[in-house]
Amino acid sequence: MNEPGEITVLLRRWRDGDDRALEQLVPHVYPHLRQVAASYLRRESNDHTLQPTALVNELYLKLLQQRKAAWDDRGHFYTFAAKLMRRILADHARSVSAGKRGGDLPHVPLSDEIPWVNVNSAGIIDVNRALDELEAVDPRKVRLVELRYFLGCTTAEAAELLDISTATVERDLTMVRSWLYSKIATP
C-alpha cells in the first residue's frame, strides 16, 4: 500500500484540527496555484486589476474560511481549489462588468480550447452558471472542467486526480466544450 504524500498528510492534519498544517501546506501548493493564476492573467494588459498573486491570495483567504476542511488527498484539494478559483474569477468579472460593462476590455480566452469564453466579460459568469447547472447532472465533468481550464492541469494530471483514463478525460472534455458552446456562445 502506498504511503500518502506530504500534501495529503498535511491536508489530513488540517482536517483533524491542526491549524498549523495549513501554514505548512501553503509552500507546497502555492507555486502550482500561482503558476495557474499567471497562465490565466499573462495575456492581460499591464493595468489589469487582478494579478496572479492577488488571485492566489484570494484563494488562500477563502481556504482560511473553511472551518471543516475535509479533503481526503491532494486531488480533492486541487479540485476544491479549482472551484474556488472559478468563483473568484466569476466574482471579479461581475465587479468589472458592473463597473465598466466590459466594453473596453480586451478579449482574453479562458483557454485556447474554449476561445469563446472571455475572462474579461460576463461570459465567465455564464460559464459559472452553466457549470452549476451541469453539476446537478454530472459533477465529475464539472470537476474536470475546473481542473483542466481553471486550475490548468494537463489531461494526464486531471485523469490522475479524478482517477479516470486520459481517454475518458478527452471524451468528456469534448462533450463539455460542445455543451458549453451551446449554452454560452449561441444566442
Quick structural gist:
The protein has 187 residues and is mostly helical. The protein has eight helices and two strands; from the N terminus they run ααααββαααα. β1 and β2 form a beta hairpin.
Mean pLDDT: 77
The oligomerization state is: single chain
Number of strands: 2
Strand content: under 5%
- Largest sheet composition: 2 strands, antiparallel
Q: Pick out the low-confidence regions.
A: none
- What is the CA-based Rg, rounded? 17 Å
Q: How many domains, in number, for the residues?
A: 1
Q: Which strands sit side by side, in order, in the main sheet?
A: 1-2
Shape: globular
Question: How much helical structure, as a percent, in the residues?
Answer: 55-70%
Q: What class, by secondary structure content?
A: mainly alpha
Order of helices and strands: HHHHEEHHHH
Describe this structure as you would to a colleague.
The protein has 187 residues and is mainly alpha-helical. It has helices spanning 6-15, 20-41, 52-64, 74-100, 123-137, 139-150, 155-162, 166-184; strands spanning 109-111, 114-118. α3 (52-64) crosses α4, α5 packs antiparallel against α6 and α6 (139-150) crosses α8. The mean pLDDT is 77.
